[in-house]
Amino acid sequence: MPKIKTKPPKLKTCKTAAKRFESTGTGKIRRGNTGMNHLKMKKSKSAKRRLTMKSGVTNGEKRVIRRMVPGL
To answer: Is the model's pLDDT at 1 over the cut of 80?
Structure first.
């Protein structure tokens, strides 16, 4: 009897993670910062500007995120 080749199951993308993270050209993963939804009056202008920029992700988190978003 010939051996039947089976395809591995497709990896499902976690859509909430796909919306939250982005990949750079060098392969690093970036995320948005917290703290910009409310209570902005007490934050300085520079703090608000710093919070709008994207941050990097640590190596431990990177492994988990790549598992949730395979195409990232």
So the answer is: no
- Report the C-alpha gap between 36 and 48 in whole angstroms: 7
Q: Are the C-beta atoms of 54 and 32 separated by less than 8 Å?
A: yes
Report the greatest alpha carbon distance in the chain.
74
43 class by beta-carbon count within 10 Å (0-12 exposed, 13-18 middle, 19+ buried): middle
Tell me the average pLDDT across 52-70. Answer: 94
* pLDDT at site 62: 94
Residue 21: count of CB within 10 angstroms of its CB: 21
Judge contact between 65 and 57, C-beta under 8 A.
yes
This prediction has a pTM of 0.76
